[in-house]
Amino acid sequence: MPKSDHRIRVTKMLIRRAFTEILRNKPIQSISVKELCETAGINRGTFYSHYTDIYDLMKKMEEEMLEDFQQALQPLLEVHEEDMTPVKITAGIFQCLKENADICTVTLGPFGDKEFAARLIRIGRDNYVESYQRFFKGATPRQLEYYYAFVSAGCIGMLERWLAEGMHTSAEEMADMAEKIMMYGIGFLRGEKAKEEVKEDYPV
Amino acid sequence: MPKSDHRIRVTKMLIRRAFTEILRNKPIQSISVKELCETAGINRGTFYSHYTDIYDLMKKMEEEMLEDFQQALQPLLEVHEEDMTPVKITAGIFQCLKENADICTVTLGPFGDKEFAARLIRIGRDNYVESYQRFFKGATPRQLEYYYAFVSAGCIGMLERWLAEGMHTSAEEMADMAEKIMMYGIGFLRGEKAKEEVKEDYPV
DNA sequence: AGGTATTTCAACACCGTGTTGATTATTGTT
DNA sequence: AACAATAATCAACACGGTGTTGAAATACCT
Predict the structure, then answer these.
(1) What percent of chain B has pLDDT over 90?
(2) Who is most buried in A113, B41, B135, B164, counting CB within 10 A?
(3) Which residue has the higher pLDDT, B162 or A187?
(4) How far is B179 from chain A (nearest CA, A)?
């Protein structure tokens, strides 16, 4: 039982390369299987033996990226050492997305898939929300809900802008900005005077 | 020259009603003109005399919604009285979207159009950014850029959640939450202790 | 080299598309 | 009420992409 045939890997690679290639100048809804196979240089029947349609292809590509993402996130969250600050975790996330930039730029781009961003958010959600929940006992569940909705979407928004600008800023700097905005809101633009007041209350 | 034929308005109404109806349980990419016309109860040729395809229909619907949106926003931004607080403006925005809920729920929903949300953001952008720019002289342009990317996407995220939950929370409360998160970040969950420190610095 | 798995190729019926021209129905105007 | 103009309907059409088939060719792994 050969778990990975060389031909299959080549074929999938060709398909995916052609897919991201086409997706650069054309929205996904106007990509046909025929066109994809022509630019990939493979037979149309071969495509159908791996995917059911274009959207199935996209879903599967996203799936694999998310697995990478989760795998990269795991060690960051497990290590409970004192030098594992929230900023480092966030930086790790940015770094991971930078490494999968080819997929992320299209799937998070203007023609991208909203559901993908939503799933990206959900992964972080479970890990963060409970520590927030436990900590901010004064806050209502609804407030927590909306706070999370805001900051998660906000991070994605920052991420999209980052990818759109070619990721010139370092992952660490991005993480630092994201962290500060989440912590201090607009105070982020005024420096970090409020930092010390909040620091000791923040859950690790 | 009859500027508005009764038949046309009826037809368009039927089309749009059927469109939002179908969009409730199915992504836009799998909606065919044929299916749309059948549920709308009109001839397929009639559709093509008004729109070129499904996406053209969506774009035109969004267009009209955005005009409404901009019109509703205008008076809020023009009035420079002291009782026109940022919260009231934001509340006005939420209220406007609530009134166009039928379109917004689908176009901002999981199967919605990313570009629509992006345009919604851009409308507010020009108005807000310059006042931020003028005020936060210490901040770099890039920081401003990313701050705006974060909070605009954050507001949309909150909005999506709001629409998804049936808009039970009042527009004012939503606006208040959004405002506080933008201002104080996670401090929002801890009450408003930091409020006074920042207030006098915030641009009207 | 062997048998197996994958890709290729041509062909097929099927369905939605976008357009056409003729016909019918509805509108605003006189 | 009668008119011309406009809009909606209908049937029909060519076109192109879809998804599947079976046989032949090719590449893989041991």
Answers:
(1) 28
(2) A113
(3) B162
(4) 10
What is the reported pLDDT for A106? Answer: 79
Q: How far apart are CA A47 and CA A15, in angstroms?
A: 8
Residue B56 maps to a domain: no
Alpha carbon dihedral B132, B136, B141, B145, in 10-degree steps, equals: -40
Looking at the fold, whether A81 and A171 belong to one and the same domain comes out as yes
pLDDT digits (tens, 9 = 90+) for A98-156: 888 878 887 888 777 778 888 887 776 666 666 666 666 677 888 888 888 898 889 88
Residue of B nearest to A144 (CA): B189
DSSP string covering B130-183? HHHHHH-TTS-HHHHHHHHHHHHHHHHHHHHHHHHTTS-S-HHHHHHHHHHHHH
Residue B79 C-alpha, separation from nearest chain A C-alpha, in angstroms? 24
Please give residues of chain B from 48 to 67 whose alpha-adjacent beta carbon (CB) lies under 7 Å from any atom of strand C: 48, 52-54
**Residues of B in Cβ contact (< 8 Å) with A158:** 146, 149-150, 153
Task: Give Dmax over CA atoms of chain B in angstroms.
Answer: 63
Residue B37 structural domain: 1-51
Q: Which CATH number is B44's domain given? A: 1.10.10.60
Full-model pTM: 0.76
Any strand C atom closer than 7 Å to B9 CB: no
- Which residues does chain B have within 8 Å of residue A147's beta carbon, measured at their own beta carbons? 177, 181, 186, 188-189
Contacts of B190 in chain A (CB under 8 A): 136, 138-139, 198, 201
The reply to whether B96 and B163 lie within a common domain is yes
Spatial distance between the Cα atoms of B172 and B192, rounded to a whole number of angstroms: 17
Residues A6 and A74 reside in one and the same domain: no
For the segment A148-176, what is each residue's pLDDT rounded down to a tens digit?
Answer: 889 888 988 999 999 989 999 998 899 88
Q: Say if residue A116 is in the same domain as residue A23.
A: no
